[in-house]
Design a protein that fits this description.
Elements lengths: L1 H16 L14 E9 L20 E2 L4 E9 L4 E7 L6 H15 L6 E3 L20 H25 L3 E11 L3 E3 L1 E4 L2 E4 L10 E8 L5 E8 L12 E2 L2 H13 L4 E6 L5 E3 L5 H19 L4 E3 L3 E11 L6 H9 L6 H12 L7 E11 L3 E6 L2 E2 L3 H9 L4 E4 L8 E2 L2 H6 L19 H16 L6
Parallel strand pairs: 2-12, 4-5, 11-13, 18-20, 19-21
Antiparallel strand pairs: 1-3, 1-6, 3-4, 6-10, 6-15, 7-14, 8-9, 10-11, 16-17, 17-18
Helix pairs in contact: 2-3, 4-5, 6-7, 8-10
Bound molecules: zinc ion.
Length: about 450
């Protein structure tokens, strides 16, 4: 074992010494095959917008087109996976799971090898499959839009999987400063505001996918901040800062597919915010940073690709009594009022308060070069240092808003302090997360990383 490890490390040492081949076909030695496709998902009929309560009408104008984009990866051993990014608020399980089933049926990609991410733009269409004729035209148009969107996500993955070409992967990173912790402490509790001393993940991870000619065929980058530069008074369809950032990079690299994947943005807002001008500005800043990073040094990302996926049974507060729930509902300002009302309705129907929510979690391990952890829900920033500790801080890309955006995924600290992110599930089920939730999520991700082959700290 020791000998073979030594041999491997000697080999990999010499591998790093090999000069980049001039001439010939560098792609002949490529570790990867990559397929790419994108489809426009801008709504064509007046549908309601998502993200803010209190909007009174459907969108009025399109400031920017929205897209779903697929990146299919295949390593030398034929292990395949797909990442889908989208200019949307988020995929709830009810919308995501039928998409995954159809993808598996069409091209054989299993659920665990599919990762759906959204930019969490608050200037996109609502998604819902629930409406009856009596809900009226807007609700029916939303259902129609959602069904078409599901077709397009399946289609974009099928298209990408049909044109795999040799590629090399590498990654680097930068930083942006408009990412602001939004949990503002006031004498009356925590409000959605501005907390410059609060933790925020300002990193900008960038994955570069080069074709046989050494030029980028795809650029995937991330940030960890809500798509909320535009406020509730905005009625223009737009990808928010992430949309403008993708457009900025696209202009510089017109032949590449430019994709955005959101990080642990649960308690981060852009700063400042509120206008289309600021949205463009943040997008330009992020896009420019990605371009700057692309001109610098990148580390190779080699195979094999190993994926571990699980649904963690994340603990909810299961012992809440009717009296406690009624007290929460009576306080209109309580962030938990919506969930408490739903839980009361369950009790009214003779059901129990659910004890767990099943959260999909995934880890993609790229050889020994990079680990991508994909968490579901609106993940608060505390999970970044927790996962850095559990997995080791290097060669780590942490994404939130993957696969099922069911509500906020708070930490024990956030739950103890209170505030908006404690509001519980808003999709898929009813419930309020328990303080033990974070330990279950972190333990599961660590276990998945071990299974996928990441070298873990003790
Ligand atoms: Zn949110």
């Amino acid at each position: 074992m020791v000998k073979s490890l030594l041999l491997l490390s000697v080999l990999s040492f010499f591998a790093t010494m090999l000069p980049v081949q001039a001439g010939g076909d560098p792609a002949a030695k490529a570790d990867w095959k990559v397929g790419l496709a994108q489809i426009k998902i801008t709504p064509e009929r007046p549908v309601p917008m998502s993200g803010y309560g209190g909007r009174t009408k459907p969108f009025e104008k399109v400031a920017q087109d929205l897209y779903v984009k697929a990146l299919v990866l295949e390593d030398r051993d034929g292990h395949r996976a797909v990442l889908v990014t989208s200019d949307l608020l988020g995929f709830p399980a009810a919308v995501a799971e039928p998409i995954c089933q159809r993808i598996e049926k069409k091209i054989g990609l299993k659920r665990e090898h599919i990762l759906l991410n959204s930019s969490h733009t608050h200037a996109g269409p609502q998604l819902s499959l629930k409406a009856t004729a009596k809900d009226g035209g807007e609700a029916l148009r939303t259902v129609e839009y959602t069904r078409q969107l599901q077709d397009k996500v399946v289609e974009v993955v099928v298209q990408a999987a049909a044109k795999l070409e040799p590629a090399r992967l590498s990654w680097g990173g930068g930083v942006v400063h408009f990412v602001m912790n939004r949990r503002e402490f006031t004498p009356n509790g925590i409000i959605l505001g501005v907390n410059p001393r609060g933790l925020a993940d300002r990193t900008v991870p960038v994955l570069r996918i080069d074709g046989a000619d050494g030029k980028p065929r795809a650029i995937l980058f991330g940030a960890a901040v809500h798509g909320t530069t535009l406020g509730a008074d905005n009625y223009q369809i737009c990808g928010d800062y992430a949309g403008f950032a993708q457009a900025h990079v696209q202009e510089r690299y017109p032949k590449a597919q430019v994709m955005f994947m959101l990080g642990c943005a649960g308690d981060a807002n852009p700063y400042p915010r509120g206008t289309m001008e600021l949205t463009r500005k943040h997008g330009t800043v992020l896009g420019e940073e990605v371009c700057r990073v692309l001109e610098g040094k990148f580390r190779p990302v080699r195979g094999p690709l190993r994926i571990a996926f699980d649904r963690a049974e994340v603990p909810l507060q299961a012992t809440l009594s009717r009296a406690e729930l009624e007290k929460i509902v009576a306080d209109k300002r309580n962030a938990k009022a919506f969930a408490a009302k739903q839980l009361l309705a369950l009790l009214d129907h003779g059901q129990k308060v659910p004890a767990h929510y099943s959260c999909p979690l995934t880890v993609w391990q790229f050889g020994s070069d990079l680990t991508l952890a994909g968490l579901s829900g609106e993940v608060v920033v505390d999970y970044v240092p927790m996962l850095e500790k559990a997995l080791g801080p290097n060669q780590l890309w942490i994404a939130g808003y993957c696969n099922d955006v069911f509500g906020y995924l708070p930490s024990a600290r956030v739950l103890a302090e209170g505030g908006y992110e404690t509001r519980g599930l808003y999709s898929g089920s009813a419930g309020l997360f328990a303080p033990e939730a974070e330990a279950v999520v972190v333990r599961t991700i660590r276990e998945l990383a071990r299974k996928a082959g990441r070298k873990l700290p003790d």
